[in-house]
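Propose amino acids for all 230 sites.
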């Protein structure tokens, strides 16, 4: 019976997140829809092929307006609701786990729809900060596989390489465990590497491409980490 109730609760929570996604994406699409409509009206007397071309440009511009608006809408919601994760252990069926799922769902909406277009631009650190991460100056972010932003700290001049995964959570024995990841200054997180909860990476360190940094690992400053036994 308990298992059935948990399943029903998960289904309801999932559909609630779908509804939230509809609302957030709808608000974000509104400015682009206005632009498209204005171009549609303004080109009413144009030759058909010219009108189609203008509408194609308007649709493309509307998509980018949508992406920027979505970042602002999601960031505003997170700030208003004060969604900051806290380190600790939480049962899967708990308020803490629900908040973790909710916050990461907000990030996931952007990751799926627009994140590829902001990587290696100032918009990526801006998004991380909006979602609660502590990000220093001149940080370069080239991966959309990071999560739990409000538990993430990245120092000045650091780089997260393409397809790198940085997460601050794990699931162990039906419990969600949240622990900060701290990345120092002038750090390089290599291509396809994985940084797990509780990791602390010292200033100037390099995590090699494809390396896995296990939970709670401390990497010395100015060292090169190739893997757990390096």
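Proposal:
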């Amino acid at each position: 019976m308990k298992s059935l109730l948990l399943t029903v609760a998960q289904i309801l929570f999932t559909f609630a997140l779908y509804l939230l996604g509809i609302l957030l994406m709808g608000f974000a699409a509104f400015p682009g829809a206005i632009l498209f409509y204005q171009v549609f009206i303004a080109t009413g007397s144009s030759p058909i092929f010219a009108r189609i071309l203008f509408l194609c440009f308007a649709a493309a511009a509307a998509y980018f307006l949508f992406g920027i608006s979505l970042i602002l809408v999601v960031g505003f919601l997170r700030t208003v609701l004060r969604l900051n994760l806290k380190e600790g252990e939480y049962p899967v069926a708990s308020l803490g786990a629900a908040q973790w799922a909710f916050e990461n769902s907000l990030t996931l909406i952007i990751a799926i729809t627009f994140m590829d277009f902001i990587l290696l631009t100032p918009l990526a650190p801006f998004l991380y900060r909006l979602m609660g991460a502590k990000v220093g100056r001149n940080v370069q972010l080239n991966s959309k596989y990071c999560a739990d932003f409000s538990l993430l700290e990245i120092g000045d001049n650091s780089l997260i390489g393409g397809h790198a995964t940085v997460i601050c959570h794990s699931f162990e024995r039906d419990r969600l465990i949240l622990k900060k990841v701290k990345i120092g200054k002038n750090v390089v997180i290599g291509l396809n590497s994985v940084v797990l909860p509780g990791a602390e990476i010292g200033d100037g360190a390099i995590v090699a491409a494809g390396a896995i940094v296990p939970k709670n690992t401390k990497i010395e400053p100015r060292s090169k980490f190739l893997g757990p036994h390096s």
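The first strand starts at residue 88 and ends at 91. The two ends are 48 Å apart (CA to CA).
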